[in-house]
Design a protein that fits this description.
The protein has about 400 residues and is of the alpha/beta class. Helices cover about 35% and strands about 15% of the residues. The chain has a domain at about 50-285: Type I PLP-dependent aspartate aminotransferase-like (Major domain) (Aspartate Aminotransferase, domain 2), CATH 3.40.640.10. The protein is built from eleven helices and twelve strands. The longest helix has 23 residues, at about 285-305.
């Protein structure tokens, strides 16, 4: 069998990420086969984006002044995001409630500082994105992992484990990494708990409306009558993580509080990128780009299912990844490590769990950057590695 090139390591970069290689692959390199979290490189409208960015650069240069820019972000971008959220996510908000951040991590840091949550207790889903747990721990919060089922976060379990929690971080639209949607009943339970306890909910809307089957559920924030939900979105999965562009939507009565925290600790950066993104949204390019991505990803998902000889009815989507569940006792981490030697980047499911004792074994296969030629060989190699770990 043809052997794929051995993956190069992040040599000479002078930085080693604290996260496992499954979550942070060598920086500034093309995505690997099955790698999660990176949008399709060949679908991005690079020529269009280049033209828009050039125009934004000229606009920024002409409009440059000696005053400081708005730390919340450019008004044009915040207004476009508010308009988009009203249509796509059911959130009615003003531009004053939108604050531009440096991606998801920048949003999480802003929220923790603005709400004074250091040393508080926080719920996270189990499993969940490891960077979320790590960020909360670094910020000094006590993290409580709350299990999920087919309806999403088990709110009653969270109340039983830590009723005093002041924060809950949820992926309501598409649970990361398992993919289920938080049910309407659970949404109301979570909102009632937050209201009764004076707690906060961070809604990590990491994929926005980029859902491959059916229509994306409205955002949890669209149901919030109490002003307890902080909605977080980014353009990392829909445009590019290199933009480092995210945003938070805060309840109107707390907008000034967050604006002050942004001005003091995390002002929005890159005016050129903000202006370009605002134009990308305003001209409808973003919505067209999302539609094109959905078509491409559905096609690649079907190709992956065929190469793996899976049924088209297999209910195994987890965001933009196909989840291959493995029998208990199969070491998914070992399989992923061996796959890396062949430039394949499946993500082991077990590493998303807070405790090894409750972790399930599986492999998450990103569908965004699959090769048109050679996918069968990649899948054959992966299947061979999986088979080698059976009995």
């Amino acid at each position: 069998m043809h052997q794929l090139p051995v993956a190069k390591q992040n040599e000479g970069k002078g930085f080693r990420s604290p996260l496992p290689n499954f979550f942070v692959h060598p920086f500034s390199q093309l995505p690997l086969v099955f790698q999660m979290g990176v949008p399709a490189q060949d679908v991005f409208p690079s020529k269009l984006w280049s033209r828009i960015t050039s125009a934004a650069s000229r606009q920024a240069a002409i409009g440059a002044s000696v005053s400081y820019p708005d730390p919340r972000g450019e008004l044009t971008l915040r207004s476009e995001i508010a308009a988009y959220l009203a249509v796509a996510r059911g959130i009615n908000c003003s531009s004053a409630q939108v604050i531009i951040t440096n991606g998801y991590t920048g949003a999480l840091g802003l929220i923790i500082h603005a709400l004074g949550l250091t040393r508080a207790t926080a719920w996270v889903e189990d499993p969940c994105y490891p960077l979320t747990r790590m960020a909360l721990n670094i910020a000094g919060l006590r993290v409580v992992a709350v299990n999920v089922d087919d309806q999403g976060l088990c709110v009653n379990t969270g109340i039983g484990q830590a009723p005093e929690a002041r924060l809950a971080v949820v992926t309501a639209g598409q649970q990361a990494p398992l993919g289920m949607t938080l049910s309407l009943a659970r949404r109301h339970e979570l909102l009632e708990w937050a209201q009764q306890n004076g707690s906060w909910i961070v809604e990590d809307d990491y994929l926005s409306e980029l859902q491959l089957s059916g229509r994306a559920a409205p955002a949890l924030a669209s149901l919030d009558r109490y002003g307890r939900v902080i909605h977080v979105g980014t353009f990392s999965k829909t445009i590019s993580p290199s933009l480092r562009m995210g945003f938070v939507v805060v309840p109107a009565e707390h907008a000034n509080r967050f604006a002050d925290a942004a001005a003091a600790l995390a002002p929005a950066s890159s005016i050129v990128t903000q202006l370009a993104l605002a134009e990308f949204l305003r001209k409808g390019h973003y919505l067209r780009h999302l539609r094109r991505m959905k078509r491409t990803y559905r096609s690649r998902l079907e190709a992956l299912r065929q190469s793996l000889q899976l049924s088209s009815t297999t209910d195994a989507m987890a965001g933009l990844a196909l989840l291959l569940k493995l029998p208990a006792g199969i070491d998914d981490v070992a399989i992923a490590n061996q796959a890396a030697e062949y430039n394949l980047a499946p993500t082991p499911l077990s590493t998303w769990y807070a405790q090894a004792s409750t972790a399930q074994s599986g492999l998450l296969l990103g569908v965004t950057n699959l090769p048109d030629a050679g996918l069968d060989k990649c899948c054959q190699r992966l299947n061979a590695l999986i088979e080698s770990h059976h009995g």
